[in-house]
Design goal:
Rossmann fold; 458 residues; 13 strands; flat; binds magnesium ion; binds guanosine-5'-triphosphate; Four Helix Bundle (Hemerythrin (Met), subunit A); single chain
Amino acid sequence: MIYCQDEETIIAQCTPQGKGAIALIRLSGPQAIECAAQMSKLANGKSLNELPTHTIHFGWVLDAQGSIIDQVMFLLMHAPRTFTGQQVVEITCHNNQFLVEAIIEKAIQLGARLAKEGEFAKRAYLNGKIDLVQAEAINELIHACTQQALKQSLAQVEGSFSAWIERIQKELFKCLAFSDASFEFIDEEMEFGSLIEQSIATILNELVVIKKSYSQQQRIREGVRIALIGAVNAGKSSLFNALLGKNRSIVADIAGTTRDTVEAGVYRYGNYCTFVDTAGLRNTNDSIEQEGIKRSLQEAAQADCILLVIDQSRSMLHEEQRVYADIIEQNRSKIIVVYNKSDLPRITNQLFDSENIVYVSTIKPGLVQLLEQRLESKISQLLKQAESPFLLNKRQWHLLLALEQRLNELKEIMQRTMAYEIISYHLKDALEHLAELSGQTISEKGMDAVFREFCVGK
Ligand SMILES: Nc1nc2c(ncn2[C@@H]2O[C@H](COP(=O)(O)OP(=O)(O)OP(=O)(O)O)[C@@H](O)[C@H]2O)c(=O)[nH]1
Ligand SMILES: [Mg+2]
């Protein structure tokens, strides 16, 4: 454990900037309490220097002339039982940017410096309060856009992934012990070999499960993307507005009203959903409209879910039928066919399986709700597919791939030879990868790359 005794004292606002009732400012470092003591006056007449740890005090932050900057609460925490493992004072003040800045400025005058991105978490990691995987999970937790991401990142903050790494580490150490022991116990060589092979096979199976859903985890992380596509005038923008509950996109009975994609995000069904309205599909010589249509098709390809909106009150052109059939064919698992304008008599032939069609009308609100129910179940189905024991980031993903590659190599080697020097060498190599995953051996550069992802104040 590296204890950051020589670190400077750092300060930052931990709550987001902007108006609100209160803001939280955190000071961490060897001089944190001294610094807070010098800039404060407490209602109990005492100094923060002389008070016991993990106590809260009402008081004021004072400027150089001794005038009050703000009325605040001080949360006093002595090392090492703090988030960073250092001396920490958290100041809860009124959330006005001038006040927050004046308090931070005062601390800087007294010797603190502004914290960099993720610096508090980095100190927590360096002081052994959390491992790297937990630090990354804290960042995920802050940015979680779906309930599932929140649940999984919270579990990772609590150490679920770290516990998995530790278990695999133990298993590999056990293999290494068998491998090394076989130098001395030649008679047991075969038995040791098969024990190692069994362990490697079990770990590889676990890796397959963890890896399986990685490509779909983006949805868990960032929410789902729902694109509305279809012919001009089908009512895509009307539906987009109805789903959002606000008039975000322009609606008109002029074909080709929407010429570029318009997107808006909302929290719905426990997830962050980005709805994307697109330019209507039709044959046109207008180059701007053509570009819009190209973008619509790109959106459809990228979306997690497509609402193919069809005006059921008019007949469908042959060309249209062909385009829709293609879109459905290519996106079968993620499409919902929406027959809009069902307040009007139905003219369009039922082209598709009836269970895939939802009849809506944007001027009859109850009918949009039917689509919302369908969407909700589609999204939960999509997120279920993406479920995995852990939520991995790119760094962890690449290290797991490297680990898998090494274990596969080892498996192959063991089929050819039982040369234990070689087996031990590969096991040590795999263990090094695991150590890098949990941050036990990560380089300064790698560590900086991890914490740069964090915001200031975390
Ligand atoms: N009767 C009826 N009219 C609708 C309904 N939904 C939309 N409309 C009308 O259909 C016309 C086209 O609606 P938009 O929402 O602009 O259609 P769009 O698909 O976005 O059209 P483009 O942007 O041109 O591709 C407007 O006059 C709407 O008022 C509906 O459910 N019933
Ligand atoms: Mg439109």
